[in-house]
Amino acid sequence: MSDRTFITHPIPPVYDSESRILILGSFPSVKSREAMFFYGHPQNRFWKVVAALFGERVPMRIPERKAFLLRNHIAAWDVIASCQIRGSSDASIKDVTANDLRPILEAGQIRRIYVNGRTAEKMYQKYTEPVTGIPCICLPSTSPANAAWSMERLISAWSRIREAE
Length: 165
Fold this sequence. Notes:
By secondary structure, the chain is an alpha/beta fold. The chain has a single domain (12-164), classed as Uracil-DNA Glycosylase, subunit E. Helices cover 32% and strands 24% of the residues. The chain contains six helices and seven strands; from the N terminus they run ββαααβββαβαβα. Helix 2 crosses helix 6 (151-158). The longest helix has 15 residues, at 118-132. 35% of the residues are buried.
């Protein structure tokens, strides 16, 4: 008996015709799925990192977060469309179906694709890069599980996303 659950990604992508940066996670955590938006775990540092990079206050509510992304020309989604997963554990992911990035790539002006962490990188390289032909740039995970990275180190590493502006 498996303790994994089959889940289809419940959160639609955020993008518009002005999107120049695409940031992909692996698959939404339990907290993000409950919140129905990306990086919903209160200890995930994604929103603090990107707010610092763009010199803005940290957006707290979903409408503010969507507006922040679009105002800063960022598209956001995840590599995985559906999978078997145990809770929020990236290490438990099996039976992956990848998201189709074509709508984002066709609608926006994507200059670079960044992935949030090694699992997203591995999944992107396996399932998505062969379809898009676009390599990704891996950034250190903003997950609370990546406690080895301080906020200062994350902000420094993530400053690369400003290159695509």
